[in-house]
Write a structure and sequence with these properties.
four-stranded antiparallel β-sheet; 19% strand; Pdz3 Domain; 19 helices; 621 residues; 3 domains; 2-enoyl-CoA Hydratase, Chain A, domain 1; six-stranded mixed β-sheet
């Protein structure tokens, strides 16, 4: 607890000090240099992730890439490039070679032999659940592995290496020399002790992200994480544009001269991924225990979008006399709001537009600023009079009006239960069972992220067991997501609360043991684009097993569990399992469709009327 407190204190101090004084290496790369960087990026991904060498886990790959970028960017011709690539990679992959023609071997390996098998994203993640494992496996079955594989880097240039070997490589002198050399590369780490006694001096130091080579290495690492391990790579069309976008980002990121634009460039790059699980932290590290983050400030106003119209959805006390909830936003800083929204969506990875707009609103992307500042906002009132209001961005958190009411008894004796409320606990639900039993029906609100106790709650409303949908786990053995193997994820079930099986099921699948009470009431579920991940898993189960009627709009189309990929700057998350509909069709980017489609109306929002809730009440009359 104490360490965490100290770290947070230094985060704030360093962020403030760093913003005052900084010296950046900014440079322009030629097209030939960028092409060489692209080739390096491919070779790095192949060797790091798909060559079975147990010793490479000890390599500092960021340092390796910084060394490699400096070495290959000034090559004069193909022969020189091949020579330098061979010098770089042979210590970690002794069998590697570079050629003008493909050198695929038709000779197959006979077992036993060693190969790579990444279970989803495996040991690369910092949030993988369960026991750690090595991606190197010993294969004793007769599987189709050839002795050598060849991958095209460009015209007349191929990289050749084995993805499976009869014997694991030994730790050679060349490998040990490389490791020592990499340790000498200055990454400018700062210890906690140094930070304690030299805070002002540290704030004016030069840091690793100021080096163009480091920033390009950052792009290379992200490029390969996504290229080889993002399960919806083809569905998102990334096989058409990902490499080009990474190259454009490398060119742009080498020229920037401040950390804000560094962060924005990374957001723009990952914004090409249609994955709402992708979240990019604004953190950066000075050392193992010392770091900071980019400050963001917000006015006491938040915006949302409904039916292609941007409106004010929350107003703090400072502005309640000049701005009203439901006012339509026309422009910010005189720039038309539609263009701003489209531009900001490029910085927000999202599976569907509706969820992207929600994330943009939740994070205050439209009114967030790097420093305490102000913005002119033009709004149009209900009587068509345009007014301009100046907003002061002085809050460190975006104001966001959330619905945290757990239980309400509505008119016509209908019960409303918010499954996304912080108060959605099984204990609180049990206290409301008598009122539910006396009601005419139940509306479950799932417009957000349902709490895990929903499994215990829903067990009271089902008559037969319900099971998890179609979640599959990818196994990556070859580069570029070739020959991916998929295994079904372990199923879990929810049994009706009144059945004896409910006791062991709740214990095995780790949800609270429900009381043996059956509730027979008609049910309506409210869904929309805010419902994602586990929320979509639950919504799909409700629809497939016909537990109730789904009302609203489609869900986010983002499911499959997320994992954290730690980076020296701007750690990010992404999906690593794959979810399909039960018939094998695509769920990603589509979501769970409602039984009754119902859009929110801005006219209702202005009058504090929930359009979708009213539709649900109508169905239960």
């Amino acid at each position: 607890m104490k360490k965490g407190t100290i770290f947070l204190v230094f985060v704030c101090l360093f962020n403030s000090a760093f913003a005052q004084d900084s010296s950046w290496e900014s440079r322009q790369f030629s097209q030939d240099e960028l092409n060489n960087i692209s080739i390096l990026s491919e070779c790095y991904g192949y060797v790091r992730f798909f060559y079975p060498n147990p010793h490479t886990k000890d390599i500092d790959w960021m340092r390796f890439l910084m060394k490699a970028i400096a070495k290959i960017e000034k090559t004069t011709n193909d022969d020189d490039l091949k020579s330098r690539l061979l010098e770089l990679f042979s210590p970690v992959c002794p069998q590697i070679s570079f050629s003008t023609d493909s050198m695929i071997s038709t000779e197959k390996l006979t077992p036993p032999y060693y190969a790579i098998e990444h279970k989803a994203i495996g040991t690369l993640s910092t949030r993988v659940l369960g026991r750690k494992y090595s991606p190197i496996v010993k294969i004793t079955d007769d599987i189709d592995y050839q002795k050598m594989y060849s991958y095209k880097l460009r015209e007349n240039l191929y990289v050749n290496f084995p993805v499976a070997v009869k014997q694991l490589p030994a730790k050679t002198k060349e490998f040990s020399s490389l490791k020592k050399e990499l340790n000498k590369i200055d990454k400018r780490n700062i210890s906690l002790f140094t930070a304690l006694i030299n805070r002002k001096k540290i704030g004016k130091s030069n840091f690793l992200w100021e080096q163009s080579g480091f920033r390009i290495a950052d792009v290379i690492v992200r490029r390969n994480y996504v290229r080889h391990f993002y399960p919806y790579f083809s569905e998102d069309g990334l096989d058409e544009n990902w490499d080009l976008e990474c190259l454009k980002t490398a060119e742009r990121i080498a020229k920037i001269n401040d950390i804000d634009n560094y962060y924005l460039s990374i957001c723009r790059l990952l914004g090409n991924i249609k994955d709402s699980h992708v979240n990019i932290w604004s953190d950066y590290k000075y050392g193992k225990y010392v770091g900071g983050y980019i400050n963001q400030y917000y006015p006491d106003v938040s915006l949302s979008v409904v039916n292609d119209t941007c409106f004010v959805d929350f107003v703090g006390k400072e502005y309640e006399n000049v701005i009203k909830k439901g006012n339509i936003v026309r422009s910010i800083h005189t720039f038309p709001i539609d263009g701003i929204i489209q531009n900001k969506l490029l910085e927000v990875p999202h599976s569907t537009t509706s969820n992207g707009l929600h994330i943009m609103s939740l994070k205050g992307k439209l009114l967030g600023f790097r420093g305490k500042t102000s913005v002119d906002m033009i709004t149009i009132s209900q009587d068509n009079i345009e007014t301009t209001t100046q907003l002061n961005a002085n809050l460190t958190k975006t104001p966001y009006l959330s619905n945290n009411i757990f239980f309400r008894l509505l008119d016509n004796d209908v019960v409303y239960i918010n499954l996304c409320s912080d108060s959605c606990t099984y204990k609180n639900f049990v206290n409301k069972i008598p009122a539910i039993q006396d009601s005419k029906g139940v509306i479950f609100d799932m417009r957000g992220y349902p709490r895990y106790d929903v499994l215990s709650i829903i067990s009271h409303f089902i008559k037969d067991k319900i099971e998890l949908g179609n979640i599959i786990r990818p196994f990556y053995c070859f580069p570029n997501q070739e020959k991916v193997k998929y295994m079904p994820s372990e199923k879990w079930y929810v049994y009706p609360a009144f059945l004896p099986e409910s006791k062991w099921a709740s214990k095995k699948y780790e949800y609270k043991k429900p009381l043996p009470i059956q509730i027979e009431k008609p049910i309506v579920f409210l869904i929309d684009g805010k419902n994602m991940s586990f929320g979509e898993t639950f919504a799909e189960m409700m629809k497939f097993h016909k537990v109730g009627t789904l009302v609203g709009t489609h869900t986010a189309g983002c499911n499959g569990d997320l994992t954290q990929l730690s980076m020296p700057c701007f750690t990010f998350f992404m999906t690593y399992y794959k979810v399909l509909n039960r018939d094998g069709s695509q769920h990603h980017g589509i979501g769970v469709l409602p039984d009754v489609h119902c859009e929110m109306l801005l006219s209702d929002i202005r009058n504090n009327i929930d359009t979708q809730l009213e539709k649900a009440k109508e169905l239960l009359r």
